Amino acid sequence: MKRITAYISGVVQGVGFRYFTRKVAKEMGVKGYVMNLSDGRVYIVAEGSEEQLEKFISTVRQGPLHAIVKGIEISEGEATGEFEDFKIRY
Q1: Is 36 one of the catalytic residues?
Q2: How confident is the model at residue 69 (pLDDT cuts 50, 70, 90)?
Q3: pTM greater than 0.85
Q4: pLDDT of 7-33, one tens digit each?
Q5: pLDDT (0 to 100) of residue 5
Q6: Considering 36, 41, 61, 89, which one is annotated as catalytic?
Q7: SS3 labels along the chain
Q8: 18 flagged as catalytic
Q9: Residue 52 confidence (pLDDT)
Q10: Residue tagged active-site, from 3, 18, 22, 41
Q11: Domains of the chain, with CATH numbers?
């Protein structure tokens, strides 16, 4: 199992990006959370297999209809297993 942290920049707040990300994560069996940051980016912590996370990031990169993803900064590490599901944090 792997863990990724990702900072998503662009038009990603106020367009349903967190809800989209949670839906995709739940469909793919990815665990973790997503939250808005005060600087306009979205922050994601996700855990799953390498294959799950590759598919997850590929789909998240597209975003929901009105989102415009301009950049993604990703860091990888070992999963901690601390998450039971995927949530939106506020």
Answers
A1: yes
A2: very high
A3: yes
A4: 999 999 999 999 999 999 999 999 999
A5: 99
A6: 36
A7: CEEEEEEEEEECCCCCHHHHHHHHHHHHCCEEEEEECCCCCEEEEEEECHHHHHHHHHHHHHCCCCCEEEEEEEEEEECCCCCCCEEEEC
A8: yes
A9: 98
A10: 18
A11: 2-79 (3.30.70.100)
